[in-house]
Design goal:
Blueprint (H helix, E strand, L loop, with lengths): L1 E6 L4 H11 L4 E6 L16 E3 L14 H15 L3 E5 L1 H10 L5 E4 L3 H4 L6 H12 L3 E4 L2 H9 L7 E3 L22 E5 L9 H14 L3 E6 L5 H10 L6 E5 L6 H7 L2 E4 L8 H8 L4 E4 L2 H4 L8 E4 L4 H13 L4 H15 L2 H19 L1
Helix pairs in contact: 3-5, 7-8, 7-12, 10-13
């Protein structure tokens, strides 16, 4: 099978998909829509993947270039002669692929495209409906995003839920026998953008840390809210108890999960969060906002805890409760790892994507 994998940029997620596809018997061609301002994946495109050069992929995508890109994408399709196009996110890459008229077209939702972008304004809602109505098949990472796609007109019989999952051999459980009775580290590696609620987390940490001197916070990554987060922590008098780890490679990332005692995501909108699945795989108890997608993964008191989305006071109280329950974390940790093994195994879940390819091709005949 000749597959044209068409994505917005080159991210760790793209690397993971391409690396897995490279190990199949399929011929994979990779096309990127843009080259963002920050290179988020430093590993080269995997061997056996043919990267296609075209008019796009040189800088940020701009709508004014849509006609030129559409013309060149049609040229690429004529040259590659794919049996299937795998495209996403929906309103940019997916829309462009749809406008070529090519089938079979498998659209892969990236979560944010349905949970956030689809509701931006009239144009984005129209682009979402147009693309889904003309797609052969859709993969989404959780039931929440699947239902959103159906609400926008996607045929429910032409969808599959495919949690992207994690490498369970790379993300392994921490050794709880090494945990001290005192210091307690809260961990978050979500982007510092309003969507992900890291500002909610740091406000809650300030409240909790003032009541308990043993609490520490470890933040990875960065984003537009960097100055705001540091100001909140400084004004709260707890910034000396915060470790800013910056950007961490995928190779080093498991070690950070294993150094922590509690994973927190205060995201306001999400699909099946890969970082949440990584935490579960590492046996790290999770405390997450009670948005629908998180509730598909975290069961209160079983493998973690939930708090009302955006509620700083409730999150602060939940952090303190987790600290006082730290001696019973082993049971929660085992349940977290079991959840990952059952539902977040990348090697098993990836097969669903290959099955979706086959279904899309059959639907087109």
């Amino acid at each position: 099978m000749r597959v044209l994998y068409f994505s917005k940029d080159y991210t760790p997620h793209d690397y993971r998909f391409l690396a897995a596809l490279a190990e199949t018997d399929n011929q994979i061609y990779y096309l990127r829509l843009e080259r963002g301002p920050r290179q988020t994946e430093d590993r080269p495109v995997p061997p056996n993947i043919e990267q296609v050069l075209w008019k796009g992929g040189q800088g940020l995508f701009e709508w004014k270039n849509l006609p030129r890109l559409l013309w060149d994408l049609k040229r690429v399709i004529r040259a590659v002669k794919p049996d299937l196009i795998h495209a996403g996110p929906i309103q940019t890459v997916g829309l462009l692929a749809t406008l070529t008229g090519f089938h079979p077209l498998l659209i892969m939702s990236w979560g944010f495209d349905l949970m956030q972008d689809a509701e931006r304004n009239w144009w984005w809602r129209t682009a979402t409906r147009y693309t889904l109505a003309r797609s052969t098949f859709l993969t989404s990472d959780c039931e929440t995003t699947r239902q959103k796609a159906i609400a926008f007109g996607m045929n429910p019989n032409h969808t599959v839920v495919f949690p992207w999952g994690v490498d369970l051999n790379h993300f392994t459980p921490k050794n709880w026998s090494l945990v001290t009775d005192y210091s307690f580290t809260v961990f978050c590696n979500r982007s510092w953008e309003p969507l992900y609620g890291v500002d909610v987390l740091v406000r809650a940490f300030v409240k909790a840390a003032k009541q308990n001197p043993e609490l520490h916070l470890m933040l990875l990554g960065g984003g537009s809210q960097g100055n705001l987060l540091r100001q909140i922590l400084t004004n709260g008098g707890v910034i000396e108890r915060v470790h800013f780890g910056g950007q961490v490679s995928q190779t080093e990332l498991p070690r950070y999960y294993q150094m922590a005692d509690l994973y927190i995501s205060a995201s306001h909108v999400d699909g099946s969060s890969v970082s949440l699945m990584e935490a579960l795989a590492c046996g790290l108890p999770a405390l997450v906002s009670d948005i629908p997608a998180n509730k598909e993964w975290v069961t209160e008191g079983f493998n973690g805890w939930l708090f009302p989305d955006g509620d700083v006071d409730a999150l602060a109280a939940a952090i303190l409760r987790a600290y006082y329950r730290r001696k019973s974390m082993v049971k929660i940790s085992r349940a977290a790892r079991a959840t990952a093994e059952e539902r977040a195994d990348w090697k098993k879940n990836f097969q669903r994507l290959l099955d979706a390819y086959e279904m899309a091709i059959r639907l087109n005949h």
